[in-house]
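Two quick folds needed for the group meeting slides. Do the first one here.
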Amino acid sequence: MSEQCPNCLSRRIGKNNYGKKTAGVVGASAGIYDGYAAATAGAQAGAAMGPAIQRGLKNGKLEIA
């Protein structure tokens, strides 16, 4: 079934794909936000645990007391 203009009934029309474009932008934005949130959480965890791990290193090996 071909597309047809509801006003002039012409069959010479093109699809704009507004929904697909909008969903693409929303998905990309969500991906960017999730990546930022994960990087921030990883940085916070590293900042909290990094000094504790460094104190436990002896000769390049982690020694757990």
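Then this one, please, same format:
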Amino acid sequence: MQAVKNAPPDLQIKDKFLVQTTVVPFGTADEDIVPAFFSKETDRYIEEKKLKVVLVSMAQPQVEQPTNGLSHAKETVGIPVTEEILDNVMKRLLL
């Protein structure tokens, strides 16, 4: 995973994260969790969730205008993330 070097002017991207969860035996150590646990060719229950990446401008907050009196705003949270944090997240996801 790499940080976006130049964000698109409209801050619209199609990047997503795939988060997978599965059940492992009690007492399984982190280092014992291998990619094979998440293989769809096994009989394991695997739950998946795609998380859409949202770029947020820190310079100007985005204000969404209602359409037909209805707000289509989605709750977003801007969290500053360092490269070290991203590396740690990726290491955990790739175990």
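Slide caption for protein two: The chain has a mean pLDDT of 75.
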